[in-house]
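User: Hey, my collaborator sent me this sequence without any context and asked if I could get a structure. I don't really work with proteins. Can you help?
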Amino acid sequence: MDSMWRAVMGMDGARSVGRLLRERGVWFEFVLDEGGGILSGGMLPTTSPVALIAVAEKGIMTVKLRLEHEGGHSSMPTPHSTIGIMAAAVERLEHSPFPSRFSISPTKHTLLHLQTDLFAHLRPLVANLWLFEGLVSYLMGFKPATNAAVRTTTAITMFNAGIKSNVLANSAEVTVNHRVMAGDTIESVLEHDIAAINDDRIKVEVVEGVEASPISDPHTAAFREVERSVKQTFEGVLTAPGLMIAATDTKHYLELSHNVYRFQPILLEPSDLPRFHGIDERISTHNLIKMAHFYYRLIKNAQSLNSPQGSA
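Assistant: No problem. I've predicted the 3D structure and written it out in structure-token form, which is a compact way to encode the shape of the chain:
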């Protein structure tokens, strides 16, 4: 079910399921959807693999930039072409990063949770974030994966202009995909884009958007049962709360529980990351077996939980 609906933002199946459950007054002790897996192979600066159980996810927002400008024959080009104007706007947008939200992000709690298992040279920094928080936040901006964990990101995903090699384009359209961090909103991101582009000729429009999710409490019995199930299934694996930087169907289930988590019980190596929505996307038979074991243990362990309201 999830694999079919998630790729289209769950707007049909998952949304209908969430609405039906709300109408029936169902309340869950916790919700667990897909999310980050178990990171190994030096993907995190820890002595052991880490199972990141996301307690929040970033919002998602699609923005269109549109420009109508003078066209004509390429033998008589204008000083500033449609494509040139739009390309300059894209460059300004890419060179206007959003501020870090490390201080209020689940990523901060990830580091605090793992501080005794971090590489030795990082432990003093994390143990003294009162002094080094700015430095840690700054350093996380250097790699795409860690940068995405501390701020709203901007990705230029489509650029359409021109119809023929000897004709000046009279229109251009660019698609921008933002992943919105808690602390930013769809409205504030739109204002940021307009200010960064700083060109009244270019129309900026939000096509679709979902706000960043609330942050669930990692200090609950439900979270501990997810952790326990992980450790029973994967020997020697550390656990920590984290942030889901992509989008899941949990946005349709936020009114069904206070404890909404995101985790997929598979061991990931660095070579697996380019395969997500890419070439040779797959799951190993070993991971498939481990996944079944995890969910069996989770269902058994969850029997010890008693939901305070509703029926679930």
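In plain terms: DSSP finds ten helices and ten strands in the chain. You can pass these tokens on to your collaborator as they are.
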